[in-house]
Amino acid sequence: MTDSAMTSAAAAAPASVADTRVFVPLALFALYIIWGSTYLGIRFALESYPPFLLAGVRFLGAGVALFAFLRLRGMKAPTPRQWGNAAFTGVLLLGFGNGLVCFAEQRVSSGIAAVAVASMPLFAAMFAGMYGEWPSRRETLGLVIGFVGVIVLNLGSGLAGSRIGAIALLVAAMSWAFGSVWSRRQDMPAGPMNTAAQMLCASVALLLVGFVSGEHLPAHPTLRATAAVVYLAVFGSIIAFSAYLYVLKHARPALATSYAYVNPPVAVLFGVMLAGEHVGPYDMVGMAIILLGVGAITLARQRRSA
Question: Which one, 33, 147, 210, 224, has least CB within 10 Å?
Fold first, then answer.
């Protein structure tokens, strides 16, 4: 290697580290706020749209728009192998992960759904361990604190959901966790093309399930429900899902999945502001514990990478 090449490589490395130190926190902020609000968005959209067709239409619209934009910008289409990996991951993350949340929110409240999905980081840590990437002691402490927080958050709240709703949320969390861990070790499409490919593949599966199960698109949807679908497609799918894939690539699984602990309090706050839901003392204490757990995970990640 020449001196100039070595100098360029040395300059590029700090720049890359600096970029992740800026963009990882920004991406996490998007995940915490936007995905926390999508639980209420799904609730509003379900006023007119059935669950699987809702998720399918959402990801089809977002996937087509993003894929077309990237191709017009000159980005290469995925290879056949990358399409296959994107299809498998997309079905796990978006098909099972999001489709089953939509299904469950017909039977449970948006806050309960967010709390149940907060178990996902524990499954992610378990699946990462299958590949020899066990969380550190400090990360494990943060995971435990966060899970205690979601339990406290739910104390005093009536679980009005059905058993099938609870099972659906558990399967959704496990599917999202395994898909996240598995995709880190696969040949995936580059950058935002990964987002577009996964959404396109997942939309086909979701629409197929919806139509086969007898769902129908509404003839006269409400304005609020349609606006919620648009919000879910643009912000929840394109922006937040792209941010998630970025964090997943540049951060440890414990940090990348920490959004699941922040989403419940955010979902509760949006419910209070926009749906008139009540926040009790357990909710406030639970939110504080959850944020403490996320802080522990973040500090553990910083010490481990130092």
Answer: 224
pLDDT at position 301 = 60
Pairwise CA distance, residues 279 & 283, whole Å: 6
Q: How far is the C-alpha of 172 from the C-alpha of 116, rounded, in Å?
A: 9
The rounded distance, in Å, linking the Cα atoms of 188 and 263 is 27
Helix axes 281-305, 137-154, angle to 10 degrees: 170
Asked if residues 284 and 258 have their Cβ atoms less than 8 Å apart, the reply is no
The whole-number average pLDDT for the span 45-59 is 96
Q: What is the mean pLDDT of residues 112-131?
A: 79
Its pTM stands at: 0.79
> Do the Cβ atoms of 121 and 143 come closer than 8 Å?
yes
Neighbours of 155 (CB within 10 A): 12
Calpha distance 101→267 (Å, rounded): 14
* Residue showing tokens 């406290």: 152
- Residue 194 CA: distances (Å) to CA of 95, 177, 203: 15, 17, 14
Q: Which residue in 117, 91, 95 sits closest to 169, CA to CA?
A: 117
Distance CA 216, CA 199 (A): 21
Residue with structure tokens 């706050």? 269
For residue 19, give the nearest of 31, 7, 27, 30 by alpha carbon. 27
Q: Residue 15, SS3?
A: helix
